[in-house]
Specification:
- The chain has no helices and eleven strands.
- The protein is an all-beta fold.
- The strands form two sheets. Strands 2, 4, 5, 6, 9, 10 and 11 form a seven-stranded mixed sheet that branches. Strands 1-3-8-7 form a four-stranded antiparallel sheet, with no helix packed on it.
- The N and C termini lie far apart (about 40 Å).
- About 30% of the residues are buried.
């Protein structure tokens, strides 16, 4: 059973960048779809992006298209979320999640393995 550990969150000014990492522990991530979700105070958890393992297809939320990029480094068993041009509305706890599925029509209820979350705050 794979476990996930996120890192890389922090405080950044609007327009800045952060890179989040999601490391797989105890098992390879090669066969898992990996998704990033986020949850702001008082709001539901929402999908940010999902990357399938079978064909590498990616599905981005409209709110982050063109600003966020997901990538995998199989040698390091780690998935990254590069976040550029950050906005105050990107402020949330970010979670990575893993599941053996294809990302089309992904949602948080479909994922069984979650990291602990990392706080991202975008503020001047």
């Amino acid at each position: 059973q794979v476990q996930l550990a996120e890192s890389g969150g922090g405080l950044v000014q609007p327009g800045g960048s952060l890179r989040l990492s999601c490391a797989g522990l105890g098992s390879t991530l090669d066969f898992y779809a990996i998704a990033w979700f986020r949850q702001a105070p008082g709001k539901e958890r929402e999908g940010v992006v999902c990357m399938s393992s079978s064909d590498g297809s990616t599905y981005y939320a409209d709110s982050v298209k063109g600003r966020f990029t997901i990538s995998r480094d199989n040698a390091k068993n780690t998935v990254y979320l590069q976040m550029n041009s950050l906005k105050p509305e990107d402020t949330a706890v970010y979670y990575c999640a893993a599941e053996l599925l294809h990302c089309s029509n992904y949602g948080p209820a479909l994922f069984g393995t979650w990291g602990q979350g990392t706080q991202v705050t975008v503020s001047s």
